[in-house]
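Limitations
The structure tokens in this dataset are predictions for the assembled complex, not deposited experimental models. Users should treat interface geometry with appropriate caution, especially where small molecules or nucleic acid strands are included. An illustrative entry is reproduced here so readers can see what is and is not provided.
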Amino acid sequence: MKCKVCKRRAVINLRAQNRGLCEECFDTYVLDRVERTIKRFKMFSRGQRVLVAVSGGKDSLGLWDILARLGYNPTGFFVDVGISRDGYSTRSRMVVESFARSRGMDLLVESLEHWWGKGIEEIGRRVLCPTCGMAKRYLTNRVAVERGYDVLCTGHNLDDEVAVLLSNILNWQVGYLARQAPVLESWHSRLTRKVKPLVLLTEKESALYALLRGIEHVEVSCPYARGATTLFYKRLINQVEWRSPGTKQRFYTLFLRNKGLFEGVAKEERESLKECDRCGQPTWEGLCAFCRFMEGSHGDTGREVSKGNQV
Amino acid sequence: MAKVVMEGRVWEVRRRMNVLRFLEKEGINPEDVLVLINGKVVTEDAVMEPQDEVKILWVLSRG
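Predicted assembly:
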């Protein structure tokens, strides 16, 4: 297959757009696509303080690289959750630190151990994965707000968003549907603005970008990962995509166009936001989910953690 | 014969074969993977020659 732009050998077949692209034109396409996404959804502008949550995976490191190349001067933020099995957290941290060093980019690192005196294996106990997600969201939000960043970027791609969307529709999680968006506005002074600049890039495109840019990333999943459902939905949607190219983007962008359907729920949630009695972070209850979990105030803490699909 | 590797699995393909045909034969969705022939990323219409080293990379994460 030839590149539709310059006729050189193509490295990817963008079936949804009915064109192949060579390495160079694909690079231009990715930068252009992300820049357009940032502008289309009014995510942020040059000169604003941008924090990028990085895990060591291909998507977040790729996003960090793209934003730097586009001239946004992003700072990376890595949360060391303290997973000792297979040396996972240490390895991820080394990958992220090496990436930052090699590109001369600013990196912030915080650890759960530093904040709470123990890592996630001790904090999370029987419900490690949901607790880990909650702790990372909590700490990332706090650091972004307290250090004065204008916006927090995450590396969620189109496949991530579509898998969560499908899961939330199948389970009619109206609250999560109301909250799912490329931009999560700050409805409270202690809630950072969150954006997802890769939402219109497929996971395959993101993986190819990382490969072609020589971005070394953590290739293995967390040893505690149980994301089999998300993976199942991604594979399912990719089967539909193969049969009917463009389905993923249509499904997501038409959802965004119809987001008004959930505005009533979204408004209710915004208006009922208050501050956690213990840490001051935004919550819908007296104590935020994280403090509630840490205090074990409801007996069996295992049931207090949300198992929903927040992205 | 072409040697095809994917996450610990190895195939030996004795004759010329189109990448798409191979993926379909093995039940692999081209949307889920990237394919490299002799270190170069290729599209599904590329042909695997008997002496080629082929690597299939899984692209989906658990999200």
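Some entries come with short summary sentences. For this one: Chain B has a mean pLDDT of 95.
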